[in-house]
Write a structure and sequence with these properties.
With about 230 residues, this protein is an alpha/beta fold. The protein has two domains: about 1-120, Rossmann fold; about 125-220, Winged helix-like DNA-binding domain superfamily/Winged helix DNA-binding domain (Arc Repressor Mutant, subunit A). Helices cover about 40% and strands about 20% of the residues. The chain has eight helices and 13 strands. It has helices spanning about 10-20, 35-40, 60-70, 85-90, 105-120, 150-165, 170-175, 190-205; strands at about 1-5, 25-30, 45-50, 55, 55-60, 75-80, 95-100, 125-130, 130-135, 140-145, 145, 210-215, 220. The strands form four sheets. Strands 2-1-3-6-7 form a five-stranded parallel β-sheet, with helices on both faces. Strands 8-9-10-11 form a four-stranded antiparallel β-sheet, covered by helices on one side. A hairpin with a 2-residue loop joins strand 4 (about 55) and strand 5. Helix 6 crosses helix 8 (about 190-205). It binds calcium ion. Calcium ion (CA) binds near residues 8, 9, 51, 53 and 54. Calcium ion binds near residues 9, 51, 53 and 54.
Length: about 230
């Protein structure tokens, strides 16, 4: 799950980034509306947290413009503007929710989870392979009932492998869909291999049944059966 934070207050932006990364979100921060505008077109995000009072740019106007251009990413406004009119204007401009500053971080997390549930009502939110279980809403991963502590990247990698269970996943697919880097001078193969090795250690380390398999020269496969 990737989140774009558009927030010009460095301390708040950093606190949000760290808090969300602890919850296994992938996070990018834009300090200006312009940068946010650029990033939201250049990359794919599942959620956007938008401050309204930004240098040289009104967050509300930016959001209106983004929606007009067809942006469908769920947007949560976080703003110190706290009147009823402000909230109505925000929602009318295309926000999906509105949180007033200052706010408690657990509430922000709960609002984000609600947006994810709403956005993904028709998608699978739980995955299972043997005794490996993953819940995309609570972001909990367990193997044999024991919680696994994954980094944001490992989490995304595992979601991808579980979505493609029993299918071959090539390094090119991972570079494009998990790392989202299509145009690179050097291939990501080594980086991918390192992450797969770490993920495998966490997922399969102590288990008798191995789930993550390497197919030499082809890629990887998550399967209850050895390919
Ligand atoms: Ca601000």
């Amino acid at each position: 799950m990737r989140v774009l934070i558009v927030e010009d207050e460095p301390r708040l932006a950093q606190a949000l980034k760290e808090g969300l990364e602890n919850e296994h979100y992938g996070v990018k921060v834009a300090a200006t509306g312009e940068e946010g505008f650029f990033l939201v077109h250049a990359e794919t995000f599942d959620l956007m947290i938008l401050d309204l009072m930004l240098p040289g740019c009104d967050g509300l106007e930016a959001l209106t413009a983004l929606r007009r251009r067809g942006l469908t990413t769920p947007v949560l406004i976080v703003s110190a503007r706290d009147t009823l009119e402000d909230r109505i204007r925000g929602l009318d401009a295309g926000a999906d929710d509105y949180l007033i500053k200052p706010f408690a971080f657990p509430e922000l997390l709960a609002r984000l989870r609600a947006l994810i549930r709403r956005g993904r009502a028709d998608e699978i939110l739980r995955f299972k392979a043997a005794d490996l279980e993953m819940d995309l809403v609570t972001r909990k991963v367990t193997r044999g009932g024991q919680p696994l502590d994954l980094t944001a990247r490992e989490f995304e990698l595992l979601v991808y492998l579980l979505r493609h269970q029993d299918q071959i996943v090539s390094r090119e697919m991972l570079a494009q869909d998990v790392w989202r880097e299509v145009r690179r001078a050097t291939p990501l193969d080594n980086v991918i291999d390192v992450h797969i090795a770490r993920l495998r250690k966490k997922v399969d380390g102590t288990a008798d049944l191995k789930l993550i398999h390497t197919l030499r020269g082809v890629g990887f496969m998550l399967s209850e059966q050895a390919p």
